[in-house]
């Protein structure tokens, strides 16, 4: 069985990554969504092990020491990281795995896994981004400021991604994301084993 595709999805805070991921998982049964570890506090309604594994700084640093994270980064005063075991297990089982992570993490993943597919989710405008971030009502005005500042920095790195995905109409965005990942399965470089088999058969026939 061929390995699954490692998909990285990034985007400014408030662009709608979480919303798109939730809908993608409801609508399509194809993907394994990695749950990250974070030192930030849970928002109302967030559950440990569902949106994130919520851990203390000491616990997080222990995971780093044990090499239990495939990447981690600091984002607006908190640590965020991707647990190694789940990702490796799912990829080996042939599942496409999605990491919803910020740009420093995306760079680390790309450096270690050049075949990873990197997708950047953008809002229709920065004014709409601010509306969504304020409308979500989960951060203080000060944290919103820091996140908008971070968005300006992150906007400089968008060219490092393979695809730009606009999250204007949610359903269109979700379907487009599914389509991009599915077409990636047809890439020649991901099908070399099958091509070798066809060549072998062809030489026997001819
Ligand atoms: N590098 C890295 N970034 C992560 C990870 N998990 C989440 N993030 C990113 O951390 C940032 C902050 O996440 P969060 O506090 O949930 O805010 P939100 O993106 O506004 O919902 C976002 O850009 C996430 O994509 C991770 O495991 N590694
Ligand atoms: N396509 C969309 N159109 C309008 N609002 C959206 C859309 N996608 C997400 N939102 C809203 O924007 C806010 C931020 O979305 P969220 O998924 O939390 O973003 P992120 O995970 O990127 O920080 C939420 O209140 C969400 O309901």
Automatic annotation (TrEMBL):
Keywords: ATP-binding, Cytoplasm, Kinase, Nucleotide-binding, Transferase. ATP binds at residues 11-18. It is found in: Cytoplasm. Residues 4-182 form the Guanylate kinase-like domain. It holds the Pfam family Guanylate_kin. Its main location: cytoplasm. GO terms for molecular function: GMP kinase activity. It catalyses: GMP + ATP = GDP + ADP. Its EC number is 2.7.4.8. It is an enzyme of class 2 (transferase). Belongs to the guanylate kinase family. Essential for recycling GMP and indirectly, cGMP. PANTHER family: GUANYLATE KINASE, GUANYLATE KINASE-RELATED. This is Guanylate kinase. It comes from Blautia ammoniilytica.
């Amino acid at each position: 069985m061929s390995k699954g595709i490692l998909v990285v999805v990034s985007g400014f805070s408030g662009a709608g990554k979480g919303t798109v991921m939730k809908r993608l998982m409801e609508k399509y049964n194809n993907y394994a969504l990695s749950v990250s570890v974070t030192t930030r506090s849970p928002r109302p309604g967030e559950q440990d092990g569902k949106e994130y594994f919520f851990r203390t700084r000491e616990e997080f640093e222990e995971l780093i020491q044990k090499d239990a994270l495939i990447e981690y980064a600091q984002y607006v005063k908190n640590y965020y990281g991707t647990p190694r075991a789940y990702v490796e297990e799912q990829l080996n089982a042939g599942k496409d795995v999605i990491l919803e992570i910020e740009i420093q993490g995306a760079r680390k993943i790309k450096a270690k896994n050049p075949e990873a597919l990197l997708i950047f989710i953008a809002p229709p405008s920065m004014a709409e981004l601010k509306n969504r971030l304020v409308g979500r009502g989960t951060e203080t005005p000060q944290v919103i400021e820091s996140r908008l500042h971070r968005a300006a920095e992150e906007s400089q790195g968008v060219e490092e991604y393979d695809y730009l995905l606009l999250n204007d109409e949610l359903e269109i965005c979700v379907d487009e994301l599914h389509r991009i990942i599915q077409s990636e399965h047809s890439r020649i470089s991901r099908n070399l084993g099958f091509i070798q088999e066809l060549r072998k058969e062809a030489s026997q026939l001819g």
